């Protein structure tokens, strides 16, 4: 994977976990049998307070599953807050446009999960997380016996993280005036996620 400049490194492991939990829709990219790519939600797998893996599930008819049986290695790609930065926001209109973003590439070993108990645990974890704090929250138990039939249609996976390449390009290149003007414009436009991410990555500005 292409290493990013050190100035774009996340401030802490918590920044990486934050992307996984708040922006969980990931690309699963594999190379065995020709490139395969599936976009699906993932959840963090924690050990001793550390992010060591990602878990999720494929539809059972997805051909990428067989490729991963043959070669259980994949990249899991996530994108966090991002957006176009317009020179129209700046006093100095000779500045060039750019794009601020947070992105993470996890190099992983993939273990498929096909037992009914393991699949049910994955589904419950994802559903319960997505339904948390909702009024009249839904649960897998609401499906009754249909839940078991649903589980037969998926194959779970545990992606053990081998390496991480993360880039949080959040205004580190900008001079103080331009940085402040960008934040003002983002706040005015309601781009709160991107503005908050910039502030997290530049705590002293």
From TrEMBL:
Pfam (any one): FMN_bind_2
Domain of life: Bacteria
Official protein name in the record: Negative transcriptional regulator, PaiB family
Organism for this UniProt entry: Asticcacaulis taihuensis
């Amino acid at each position: 994977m292409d290493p990013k400049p050190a100035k774009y490194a996340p401030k802490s492991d918590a920044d990486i976990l934050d992307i996984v939990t708040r922006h969980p829709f990931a690309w699963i990219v594999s190379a065995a049998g020709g490139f395969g790519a599936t976009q699906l939600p993932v959840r963090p797998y924690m050990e001793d307070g550390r992010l060591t893996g990602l878990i999720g599930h494929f539809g059972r008819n997805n051909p990428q599953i067989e490729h991963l049986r043959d070669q259980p290695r994949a990249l899991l790609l996530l994108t966090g807050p991002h957006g176009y930065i317009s020179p129209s926001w700046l006093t100095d209109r000779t500045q060039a446009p750019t794009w601020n973003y947070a992105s993470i590439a996890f190099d992983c070993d993939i273990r498929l999960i096909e037992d009914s108990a393991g699949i049910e645990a994955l589904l419950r974890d994802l559903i319960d997380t997505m339904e948390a704090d909702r009024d009249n929250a839904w649960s897998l138990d609401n499906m009754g016996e249909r839940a078991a039939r649903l589980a037969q249609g998926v194959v779970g996976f545990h992606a053990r993280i081998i390496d991480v390449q993360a880039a949080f390009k959040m205004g580190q290149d900008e001079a103080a005036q331009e940085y402040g003007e960008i934040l003002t414009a983002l706040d005015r436009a309601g781009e709160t996620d991107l503005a908050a991410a910039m502030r997290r990555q530049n705590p002293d500005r």
